[in-house]
């Protein structure tokens, strides 16, 4: 198992390496490579992280929480199985 260099900086949920919203592009690619044999597990793991991020982000800014579509896209959409309408998620 490789070490993921692009880790989240909590509670802001920005990448420690590139300061992009986490999971950033390099983190997504590394997670997909690392868990290519069990994408269902990866999606469950990401859903848990999405829940933690929502809790942290709402605690930091309760008056302007992340939009549901935005947080779903950030944590889960890119890891969803490709469909005819959305063949690429990264």
What can you see in these coordinates?
By secondary structure, the protein is mainly alpha-helical. The chain has a domain at 23-79. Helices cover 44% and strands 4% of the residues. It has three helices and two strands, in the order E-E-H-H-H. The chain has helices spanning 25-34, 39-60, 68-75, and strands at residues 8-9, 14-15. It has a two-stranded antiparallel sheet. A hairpin with a 4-residue loop joins strand 1 (8-9) and strand 2. The radius of gyration is 13 Å and the shape is globular. The two termini are 21 Å apart. The mean pLDDT is 90.
**Order of strands in the sheet with most strands:** 1-2
Number of contiguous helices: 3
Q: What is the N-to-C order of secondary-structure elements (H for helix, E for strand)? A: EEHHH
Strand content: under 5%
Largest sheet features? 2 strands, antiparallel
What class would the helix/strand composition place it in? Answer: mainly alpha
Specify the helix fraction band: 40-55%
Low-confidence stretches: none
What is the CA-CA span between the terminal residues? 21 Å
